[in-house]
Design a protein that fits this description.
The protein is of the alpha+beta class. It has nine helices and 73 strands.
């Protein structure tokens, strides 16, 4: 019993010691982008990304951005046991026992079948998965099952992979299999240790955590299981060995043990609920909790010492002692032995302290330097209120920058003490009421900082007018590129002046009076010189230079980044003490070693236009998709915004990407090939992105070829079209010639029809009979008409158009001759008096075939009187109507008679005339012919009426 009490007291003392000095930790929770504060597992993959299994599922974290992975039919997202296989897939098992993996930047379910007790593992190139009835082994390359072992899974306590071996606790036995599914060992468990879990290997011995109530200790196997002496405060949810450090997540704390000495080293996060632990590849420890997100411990040795209040704003080392100033006017001193912080002075006005200045001697400056206190070897002056900066010149004078003026302060007005600046001091106005011991060098200006270079005997003031300087017998101003320099801070080391401009640029004026700008850093927040150390505070980190080790030329990269284990924005002040760097943060005072940053995080392009990026691929985008969004990752968890990424396109100028985003947006890119190069912290990276914006279709070679082919086709088409048009024109000419020939043939046919043998024979017989009967008068008259008609027909055949008068005369001659042939035939020709027969023209010989047809086929077979009437009149204002009316036998009876005489009979004259009409109508003559068959009261044929409409021209 006594032994247990001693152990308990010793444990409490160790716990108290561990709590007194907590290592510095960075806290990450939902406010920094985590999807949940409930964390179940943490894992870092080979690329450096940290994977987090939380209440909202699986997420990937790069220090700045979080990407969540979900599956469409996922019922439970929460899970744990994150692992990476040799092929880069990330695996985890959900709390409803479904196994998932991330491949090609998306989440997939494995086998779509639940397992048992969240048990799965990866050993070598083998995946094992515990189902309801068996332990299955899969080849990771093909994800195909190669072995299945029937097993009752109800009594399995845990399964774990150790050194590519699968360790399973089943009932009271530890069964060990290799990656091929072969049994390697079977170890019985002592009865009191059957609840042991969380196996790990140390010194080639198997260790287990016994969580049995009343035990809660670590046991090791050495032929049999034995206790090691390490005991826990409460049940252990997870235990992980890191070299010789064992971290155990208990119910309300994280216990850190030295496994070599079996001693408790630290108790961390007491009151928290730690759930999982991980050490990343940079040696930082990650702690997950069940209700407060993540903690990152950069270094277990980098302890945080609490400050009395969170109002500390500056630090000063004077004679190897560290002093702290607050925003409310308190001054504290830090004890180097135990790091205790004691308040030693409070200002009367409780204003923010800007600086603590050591002044040799024992005299204050009255009345404006009352805020100060004695020090063993002099005075420590507090700079606050309207006083912004003080620089020590000599035992008599100080340079002081006020918010309204720049002055020389006389600490000792004794005439026995002389100074090079006496003449300057007494040459300027002194207002005893306002400044009884001050000479105003610049009045009505806002002075922010001052510095004194002894080798030059010059005092420099940074004001709203620029940098002004004063020497004992001269004055001037500092220019850069012939322009004023507007600074917030000026610092001096030997003969070098460091100036921080309002724009965050660092200007350096060296001993040779040359001024240059430090190009590698822009937007600097603060500079400070501690002894011979220069510190530059930037959003990307803290940079340092030992001014005694570098040359006066100060090359372009003389500042080196410190291996900062915290976000630089949390740093309030920096100092050097006891050969260590002291950081004043809101969480407390942190001591760190003097080493420079050698860590360079990796750089990965993760996606292009929100699609997974594939290295070594040349991307091609259509013309309209010329706005690109390139997402990238810089896995750094201590300084997520502490790196400067620059990029350039096609060897152009370098552009800087904002540190608080992980995207590069390129808008309205022209069609061409692109090469993007990257620099991280001014170091050229091997990563390159190649892509191409396709040209519009009308600018590509194929398109030009297509356009050329199309153009050639169009030319060929036009050529062939013109050729066809010419051919058609020629055909029309040929057709016209043929039509003309046909017209002539038609006219000749008309002539032939009129001059047919029957007509000639009858006409000549009639003339002969008149001659024989010596009827000279009739013979002469008939012969004269016959010759006139013949001559008239021949004349008309040579003309395309004839006057109506000529047509009527020709018809009369013809009908007079035909009347002699037919007895009882009478004809009449009437012409409308409105017609001018001499000025009305019609196609020649257009009427004669119908008149001939009326006589030959209608009147020839008519018994009794034969009558033919021809009339010419105006049908319309420009239409001539010609009516040929006979009282013959009609067309139907004539056709029947012709069929009896000649089955193949066709009216040659009518056919020829119809063809001629078709030819004429092609020239828009618009000649219309209509036939009317007449009948009597008994509906018997009584003749035919032919109506011809001819346009008057």
């Amino acid at each position: 019993m006594t032994r247990k009490i001693i152990y308990f007291v010793f444990y409490l003392l160790l716990s108290h010691y561990g709590l007194a000095q907590q290592p510095y930790a960075i806290h990450i929770d939902k406010s920094r982008g985590l999807p949940s504060n409930e964390i179940f597992d943490i894992y870092q993959d080979k690329k450096g990304f940290v994977w987090i299994a939380g209440n909202q599922g699986l997420s990937r974290f790069d220090g700045l951005t979080v990407k969540n992975y979900t599956y469409s039919n996922q019922y439970s997202r929460a899970g744990n046991q994150i692992m990476e296989d040799p092929y880069g897939r990330i695996w985890y098992v959900s709390f409803d026992n479904y196994l998932y993996y991330v491949q090609n930047d998306s989440l997939h379910v494995f086998n779509d079948q639940p397992g048992v007790n969240h048990i799965y593992g990866i050993a070598d190139h083998t995946l094992f998965f515990l189902t309801q009835t068996s332990l299955d082994f899969y080849d990771l390359k093909s994800l195909s099952r190669f072995k299945q072992m029937a097993m009752f899974t109800g009594d399995i306590g845990f399964a774990h992979v150790l050194n590519d071996l699968l360790v399973i606790r089943k009932s009271n036995t530890l069964t060990i299999y290799n990656s091929k599914g072969e049994l390697s060992a079977s170890i019985p468990l002592n009865k009191q240790y059957i609840h042991s879990e969380h196996p790990f290997i140390f010194n080639h011995q198997l260790h287990l955590v016994d969580n049995y109530p009343g035990s809660k200790q670590i046991v090791r196997y050495d032929g049999k299981f034995m206790p090691t002496g390490i005991r826990f405060h409460s049940m252990v949810k997870k235990a992980v060995l890191f070299d010789s450090l064992l971290m155990a997540a208990e119910n309300d704390r994280l216990s850190v043990f030295d496994i070599k000495s079996f001693q408790l080293r630290q108790t961390l996060f007491q009151g928290e609920r730690p759930s999982c632990m991980m050490r990343d590849r940079d040696g930082h420890f990650w702690i997950g909790t069940l209700d407060n997100g993540l903690y990152i411990i950069p270094d277990l040795h980098q302890l945080t010492y609490p400050l009395p209040e969170k109002k500390i704003c500056l630090s000063k080392v004077i004679d190897h002692k560290l002093y702290l100033g607050s925003t409310t006017g308190e001054v504290y001193q830090v004890n180097a032995a135990d790091m205790n912080v004691n308040k030693i002075f409070t200002t009367t006005n409780h204003q923010e302290i800007y600086d603590l200045v050591y002044l040799p001697g024992n005299q204050y400056i009255e009345p404006h330097f009352r805020n100060g206190f004695k020090y063993d070897k002099g005075m420590i002056q507090i700079v606050s209120g309207g006083l912004k900066s003080v620089a020590y010149i000599d035992p008599k004078y100080l340079a002081a920058a006020y918010s309204s003026s720049a002055v020389l302060l006389n600490r000792n007005r004794s005439d026995s003490l002389t100074s090079l600046f006496d003449e300057l001091y007494y040459s300027r106005p002194i207002d005893p009421a306002l400044f009884p011991n001050a000479s105003v060098l610049l009045d009505g200006v806002r002075a922010k900082s001052t510095a004194y270079i002894p080798e030059e005997h010059k005092v420099y003031y940074a004001t709203n007018l620029g940098i002004r300087w004063f020497a004992p017998k001269e004055k001037g101003h500092l220019l850069w590129n012939k322009k004023e320099i507007y600074c917030s801070t000026i610092l001096q080391h030997q003969q070098t002046l460091f100036c921080l401009t309002h724009g965050g640029e660092l200007l350096i004026r060296t001993a040779d009076s040359r001024i240059r700008r430090y190009e590698n850093l822009q937007q600097i927040e603060r500079i400070k010189i501690c002894d011979h150390h220069l510190f530059v505070q930037h959003a990307s980190g803290i940079f340092h230079a030992d001014l005694e080790e570098i040359s006066t030329s100060m090359d372009s990269n003389f500042l080196k980044q410190l291996p900062l284990m915290m976000n630089s924005s949390q740093i309030l002040d920096i100092n050097v003490w006891e050969n260590e760097i002291i950081f004043i943060t809101r969480e407390g005072l942190i001591r760190s070693e003097f080493t420079h940053h050698s860590f360079r995080p990796a750089f990965y392009i993760t996606s292009i236009n929100q699609k997974p990026y594939t290295p070594e691929r040349i991307y091609r985008f259509p013309t309209k998709q010329n706005d690109l969004e390139i997402s990238y990752a810089i896995p750094d968890y201590l300084q997520p915004q502490g790196h400067i990424l620059s990029y350039r396109i096609n060897h152009g100028i370098w552009k800087q990407s904002p540190s608080d985003v992980r995207k590069i947006t390129l808008a309205s890119l022209e069609p061409e090939d692109y090469l993007i190069e990257f620099k991280l912290d001014n170091e050229l990276l091997p990563n390159q992105l190649k892509f191409k914006i396709e040209k519009p279709w009308y600018k590509t070679f194929g398109s030009w070829l297509t356009i050329f082919a199309l153009f050639a086709f169009i030319i060929l088409f036009i050529y062939r079209w013109q050729l066809r048009q010419q051919k058609e024109k020629n055909n029309l000419e040929m057709e016209k010639m043929q039509l003309e020939n046909s017209l002539k043939q038609s006219m000749m046919s008309s002539i032939k029809s009129q001059m047919n043998p029957h007509f000639l024979f009858n006409a000549l017989n009639t003339i002969q009979s008149f001659i024989i009967s010596e009827d000279k008068r009739n013979a002469s008259t008939y012969l004269s008409k016959f010759s006139k008609l013949t001559r008239r027909i021949l004349e008309m055949s040579e003309k395309e158009k004839i006057s109506l008068d000529e047509e009527v005369d020709a018809l009369k001659l013809y009908l007079d001759l035909e009347k002699i042939r037919f007895e009882q035939m009478e004809y009449t020709i009437t012409v409308d008096s409105l017609l001018n027969t001499e000025s009305v023209f019609i196609p020649s010989m257009i009427i004669q075939p119908y008149v001939e047809n009326a006589i030959k086929h209608g009147l020839l077979h008519k018994k009794g009187p034969k009558k033919l009437h021809i009339s010419f009149k105006k049908f319309d204002s420009n239409i001539l109507e010609i009516v040929i009316d006979d009282n013959g036998i009609g067309r139907m009876r004539s056709h029947e008679l012709n069929l009896i005489k000649n089955k193949d009979h066709q009216s040659f004259a009518l056919q020829a005339n119809q063809k001629r009409l078709d030819i004429l109508n092609q020239d828009n003559q618009d000649i219309h012919i209509s036939f009317t068959d007449k009948t009597d009261y008994d509906q018997q044929p009584s003749g035919t009426t032919v109506t011809i409409h001819i346009p008057i021209q």
